[in-house]
Write a structure and sequence with these properties.
Elements lengths: L1 E6 L2 E4 L4 E9 L6 E7 L6 E6 L6 E3 L7 E6 L4 E6 L8 E8 L2 H4 L8 E2 L3 E6 L1
Parallel strand pairs: 2-11
Antiparallel strand pairs: 1-3, 3-8, 4-5, 4-9, 5-6, 7-8, 9-10, 9-11
Length: about 120
C-alpha cells in the first residue's frame, strides 16, 4: 500500500554534489522512519543514513559523515539525501527505505518494511 520512488540520480564528477529525492505515496498516515541504503557493483547493500519521522534524529554510516545530509519534508511526503564532496567509491544504486520503527531501519536491511527501486549515482574521477 506504500510506494517509495527515488529520483535525482545521475553522473557527477568527484568533489561535486548531488541531491536525491524519495517520494512516498499511498497509505502515508503512519509515521515512518526513513532511510537511504546503497549497493555498489559486487558489494552488499549497505546502510547510509536514517531519519526519524520528526526529523529530530539522524544517523549516518561513518564513511559519509560530514559529507551527506538526510532531511525530510513531511508535508510533501518527501525525503532527501544531499551528497557533497562525492568520491568515486560513492558510486552505487541508492535505495530509499521506510520502516515503522526507527530502531529497525538503522539495524540494517532486515529492518526495512518498504523499498524503492533505486536510483543510480555515478561519480567519475
Amino acid at each position: 500500500q506504500v510506494q517509495v520512488v527515488e529520483s535525482g540520480g545521475g553522473l557527477v564528477q568527484a568533489g561535486g554534489s548531488l541531491r536525491v529525492s524519495c517520494a512516498v505515496s499511498g497509505r502515508t498516515l503512519n509515521t515512518y522512519a526513513m532511510g537511504w541504503f546503497r549497493q555498489a557493483p559486487g558489494k552488499e547493500r549497505e546502510f547510509v543514513a536514517a531519519i526519524s519521522w520528526s526529523g529530530g534524529t539522524t544517523y549516518y554510516t561513518d564513511s559519509v559523515k560530514g559529507r551527506f545530509t538526510i532531511s525530510r519534508d513531511n508535508a510533501k511526503n518527501t525525503v532527501y539525501l544531499q551528497m557533497n564532496s562525492l568520491k568515486p567509491e560513492d558510486t552505487a544504486v541508492y535505495y530509499c527505505a521506510a520502516a515503522l520503527k526507527y530502531s529497525t531501519i538503522v539495524s540494517g536491511t532486515g529492518g526495512v518494511d518498504y523499498w524503492g527501486k533505486g536510483t543510480l549515482v555515478t561519480v567519475s574521477s
